[in-house]
Amino acid sequence: QVQLVESGGGLVQPGGSLRLSCAASISAFSIYTMIWYRQAPGKEREWVAHITTFGTTSYANSVKGRFTISRDNAKNTVYLQMNSLKPEDTAVYYCNKQAPLLQWGQGTQVTVSS
Fold it and tell me: Which of 79, 87, 92, 95 has its CA 20 to 30 A from that of 26?
């Protein structure tokens, strides 16, 4: 059964850091571009960052310079290191692979608040 399991979220003060993980139970994980998304309350899900099979990364302007996406193909896992967090980063964070998308996981809640 194909699964995406996100973890690592929590409550953090502004300026703090979190590291999210996404374990993907898919075959040939290494050949896929992996993507982090987020969905804030009352807003649509948005793209945050992606990492290609070659390790090329790209970021939304809102997180550039603060977030770093990485992957460990041996562990079928993609990470999102989030630094200098802001209240507007509060959202449920999800991962998925390049299209066609897999069934969404449960996500991991990130709350940035003092």
Answer: 92
**Average pLDDT of each block of 10 consecutive residues along the chain (114 residues)?**
92 98 94 97 97 97 98 97 98 96 96 97
Nearest to 87 by CA among 54, 111, 53, 62: 111
Nearest-angstrom CA–CA distance, 35 and 95: 5
Residue type, 48: V
**End-to-end C-alpha distance for the chain, whole angstroms:** 39
Number of residues that make up the chain: 114
Token pair, residue 57, equals 């990364």
Residues 10 and 109: their CA atoms lie apart, in Å, by 6
Of residues 23, 21, 25, the one with CA closest to residue 108 = 21
